C-alpha cells in the first residue's frame, strides 16, 4: 500500500503551477457525449484518478477517448455511442459518473446508471437530478441498485427550481436541457465557476445557455451539439490548498495560474488569519513571517467559503494562535479528519456540525489516514508543520484530486516522498 512520508519543519518557497480544475473537467468530459460529430479536444486536463475513471466510463459506452497525461490533453470522439448503460464497477468508484445521465438522456433518449459512489463525506442525494429530469419529461425508475431513465417523447423545456443549489444537479440538468425542445429556466442553480465553465464549453459546442453563474440560467434547446476544443479553468481548490500550505509553513509561494476572482473567500480568510497576499493577473502570492491567528469560518455554497477547503483550513487553525470555530453546513459528515488531526496532537472538539479548534499547539508526526480527498490534503498540510515523521495512508483518495502533489511540494522545498510500505496506522 502506498503512503506519503513527510518530515515537517520546512517553509515552502518558490512557484507552483495550478492545473485544470477537477470539478470542472469531470462534467465537461461527460458533456462531450453531446458531440454528435468530430472530436472534442480538451486541454489542461489534470492527471487524476477521477479523470481516468470517467474516461473509462465513456469507453464502456463505446466512445473513443485518448488521454495524454504528459500533455494534459484528452481527445474524445463521441460520434458513436454503443450503449447507454454504464457499468456498476466503474460508476461505484466515483459519484461524478452520474453526470453522464443528462447527456445520455438528451442524446440517446434513455440511460441506465448504477447508484453512484465517491467519498464518504455524508449524504449527497441525487433526487434533485432526478426531479430535474422528470420536469424535462423523463420517466425515472430505480431497480436493483440502478437508475433507469427514459424520454419516450423527447425532452421538453421547463421551468425548474432547485430546493438547494446543487452543483451536480445544475450541471446534469443543464446538459440535458441543452438539447431539449423549447426553453428551460433553472432557478436557484449552483453559482460555482465550474458551472460557468461547463456552460461556456456547451456554448462552444453550439448550445444556447445564458446566465450561468447567476440565480437564473436560461437554456434554449438546440437539435444537436458538435464536438469542440476547449481549455479547462484552473483548479481553485488546488490553488487554495497551496495557499494554505504557504501560510501555515511561514513560507513564500507564488501560485501560478490561480484566479483570484474564484478564491475571494479563501483570500479573505487567509488575510484575516494574518497571511500576506498579493493578487496578480498571472496568479496569487502568499507569504507569512509568523504564526497564523485564530479565525471563525462557516462553509456555504459558492460564493461562500468552500466546503472543499474546510479540512485544509482546520489543519492550519490547529497550529494557529487562539481558538477558532469551524461550522460545516454543506455536508453533515465532513469532520472525519478531526480524529486524524487529534492523533497528531491537535485539540479539536466537535459538536454536531461545529468544531472548536484550540490552536497554539505543536503537532507531532504520526501514522494518519486520508479519510477522503480533502481530508487527505489536510493530513499532508499538517505533516508539513509537524515534528518527527508523518505517514499518510489511504492516499488513493488524494490521487483523486491532486495532480503530481509530491513533485510540486518537493519543488517548493518540502521533505515528502511516496513509498510502498505496509500500513501500520490505527
Automatic annotation (TrEMBL):
GO terms for biological process: cell division; cell wall organization; peptidoglycan biosynthetic process; regulation of cell shape; UDP-N-acetylgalactosamine biosynthetic process. It holds the Pfam family EPSP_synthase. Its EC number is 2.5.1.7. InterPro entries: Enolpyruvate_Tfrase_dom, Enolpyruvate_Tfrase_sf, MurA_subfamily, RNA3'P_cycl/enolpyr_Trfase_a/b, UDP_GlcNAc_COvinyl_MurA. UDP-N-acetyl-alpha-D-glucosamine binds at residues 95, 124-128, 308, 330. It catalyses: phosphoenolpyruvate + UDP-N-acetyl-alpha-D-glucosamine = UDP-N-acetyl-3-O-(1-carboxyvinyl)-alpha-D-glucosamine + phosphate. The modification 2-(S-cysteinyl)pyruvic acid O-phosphothioketal is found at residue 119. The keyword DNA repair does not apply. One of its GO terms (molecular function) is UDP-N-acetylglucosamine 1-carboxyvinyltransferase activity. Gene3D superfamilies: Enolpyruvate transferase domain. Pathway: Cell wall biogenesis; peptidoglycan biosynthesis. Keywords: Cell cycle, Cell division, Cell shape, Cell wall biogenesis/degradation, Cytoplasm, Peptidoglycan synthesis, Pyruvate, Transferase. One of its GO terms (cellular component) is cytoplasm. The active site is at 119 (proton donor). Phosphoenolpyruvate binds at residues 22-23. It is found in: Cytoplasm. Its main location: cytoplasm. NCBIfam families: murA (TIGR01072), PRK09369.1 (NF006873). Belongs to the EPSP synthase family. MurA subfamily. Cell wall formation. Adds enolpyruvyl to UDP-N-acetylglucosamine. This is UDP-N-acetylglucosamine 1-carboxyvinyltransferase. It comes from Selenomonas flueggei ATCC 43531. The lineage of its organism: Bacteria, Bacillati, Bacillota, Negativicutes, Selenomonadales.
Amino acid at each position: 500500500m502506498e503512503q506519503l512520508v513527510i518530515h515537517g519543519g520546512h517553509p515552502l518557497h518558490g512557484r507552483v503551477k495550478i492545473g485544470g480544475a477537477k470539478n470542472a473537467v469531470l462534467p465537461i468530459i461527460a458533456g462531450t457525449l453531446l458531440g454528435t460529430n468530430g472530436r472534442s479536444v480538451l486541454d489542461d486536463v489534470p492527471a487524476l484518478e477521477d479523470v481516468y475513471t470517467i474516461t473509462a466510463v465513456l469507453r464502456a459506452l463505446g466512445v473513443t477517448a485518448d488521454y495524454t497525461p504528459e500533455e494534459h490533453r484528452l481527445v474524445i470522439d463521441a460520434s458513436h455511442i454503443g450503449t447507454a448503460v454504464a457499468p456498476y464497477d466503474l460508476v461505484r468508484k466515483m459519484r461524478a459518473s452520474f453526470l453522464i445521465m443528462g447527456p445520455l438522456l438528451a442524446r440517446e433518449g434513455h440511460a441506465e446508471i448504477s447508484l453512484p459512489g465517491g467519498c464518504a463525506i455524508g449524504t449527497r442525494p441525487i433526487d434533485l437530478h432526478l426531479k430535474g429530469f422528470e420536469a424535462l419529461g423523463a420517466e425515472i425508475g430505480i431497480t436493483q441498485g440502478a437508475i433507469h431513465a427514459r424520454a419516450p417523447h423527447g425532452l421538453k423545456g421547463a421551468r425548474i427550481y432547485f430546493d438547494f443549489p446543487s452543483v451536480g444537479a445544475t450541471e446534469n440538468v443543464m446538459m440535458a436541457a441543452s438539447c431539449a425542445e423549447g426553453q428551460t429556466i433553472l432557478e436557484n442553480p449552483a453559482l460555482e465557476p465550474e458551472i460557468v465553465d461547463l456552460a461556456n464549453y456547451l456554448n462552444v459546442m453550439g448550445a444556447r445557455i445564458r446566465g450561468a453563474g447567476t440565480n437564473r440560467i436560461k437554456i434554449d434547446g438546440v437539435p444537436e451539439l458538435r464536438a469542440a476544443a476547449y481549455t479547462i479553468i484552473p483548479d481553485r481548490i488546488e490553488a487554495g490548498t497551496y495557499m494554505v500550505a504557504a501560510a501555515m509553513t511561514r513560507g513564500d509561494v507564488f501560485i501560478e495560474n490561480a484566479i483570484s476572482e474564484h478564491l475571494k473567500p479563501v483570500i479573505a480568510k487567509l488575510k484575516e488569519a494574518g497571511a500576506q497576499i498579493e493578487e496578480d493577473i498571472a496568479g496569487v502570492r502568499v507569504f507569512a513571517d509568523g504564526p497564523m491567528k485564530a479565525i471563525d469560518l462557516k462553509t456555504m455554497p459558492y460564493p461562500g467559503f468552500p466546503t472543499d477547503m474546510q479540512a485544509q483550513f482546520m489543519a492550519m487553525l490547529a497550529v494557529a494562535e487562539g481558538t477558532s470555530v469551524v461550522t460545516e453546513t454543506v455536508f453533515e459528515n465532513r469532520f472525519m479528519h478531526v480524529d486524524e488531526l487529534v492523533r497528531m496532537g491537535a485539540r479539536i472538539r466537535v459538536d454536531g456540525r461545529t468544531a472548536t479548534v484550540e490552536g497554539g499547539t505543536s503537532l507531532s508526526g504520526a501514522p494518519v489516514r486520508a479519510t477522503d480527498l480533502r481530508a487527505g490534503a489536510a493530513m499532508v498540510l499538517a505533516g508539513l508543520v509537524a515534528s518527527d515523521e508523518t505517514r499518510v495512508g489511504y492516499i488513493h483518495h488524494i490521487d483523486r484530486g491532486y495532480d503530481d502533489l509530491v513533485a510540486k511540494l518537493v519543488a517548493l522545498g518540502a521533505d515528502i516522498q511516496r513509498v510502498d510500505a505496509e500500513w501500520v496506522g490505527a
